[in-house]
């Protein structure tokens, strides 16, 4: 039997969007800090304001593009979300520093799934964090793509990663009401995460949100 995954709605850009996502069934909200590219970026001030309005037990994920532990800690201290989602590779895999300085904060590392090397990377990184999130960015571009691409990736590799690690796995990248059922059947993730698939002209769309939750629960 396949368990229905938790849903994280990302790119939340206002208190109203946060409320709408929670009312529709989101277990977690994504709040996108400064990024080199992507549609969901908001200010740290607004992230902090939104975080304060989110009721327990809904998780608030701060998406950070910082790669140095001190910069990640400094970013976190401006917003106090419940989870840090690191969307680029952490410098020298210094997770111990983050654990020591922020012992109560959960860490989620994004792996951008490109080829077999992503499997090796995910297995190694999974020893240090609380969850892995698979996305479809390209950190090797001159202007890095670190998420929010609206593209899917190779779900066979995602399935292999899910079977190879012992911690929860979130699947992201181009999910929408048309493909989410297939994605769940294929990867069987702990959680799913999306941004563009529930938006119209950049705004969270209640009808798309409801249709998305209906597709998951069908
Ligand atoms: O949305 C952004 O602006 C963004 C920028 C940089 C890193 C991550 C970003 N968003 C995350 O990307 C995934 C996938 O988005 P999509 O569903 O493919 O549009 C999304 O869940 C956010 O976590």
UniProtKB/TrEMBL annotation:
Q: Which CDD domains match?
A: PRAI
User: Tell me, what's a Pfam family for it?
Assistant: PRAI
Q: Which reaction does it catalyse?
A: N-(5-phospho-beta-D-ribosyl)anthranilate = 1-(2-carboxyphenylamino)-1-deoxy-D-ribulose 5-phosphate
What keywords appear on the UniProt entry?
A: Amino-acid biosynthesis, Aromatic amino acid biosynthesis, Isomerase, Tryptophan biosynthesis
Q: What EC number(s) does its UniProt record assign?
A: 5.3.1.24
Tagged with keyword Hydrolase: no
Q: What pathway is this protein a component of?
A: Amino-acid biosynthesis; L-tryptophan biosynthesis; L-tryptophan from chorismate: step 3/5
The UniProt entry, under InterPro entries, shows:
Aldolase_TIM, PRAI_dom, RibuloseP-bd_barrel, TrpF_fam
EC class of this enzyme?
isomerase
**Stretch forming the signal peptide:** none
Which family is this protein grouped under?
A: Belongs to the TrpF family.
Q: What name does the UniProt record give this protein?
A: N-(5'-phosphoribosyl)anthranilate isomerase
Native species: Terrimonas rubra
Upper classification of the source organism reads:
Bacteria, Pseudomonadati, Bacteroidota, Chitinophagia, Chitinophagales
Instruction: Report the gene name.
Output: trpF
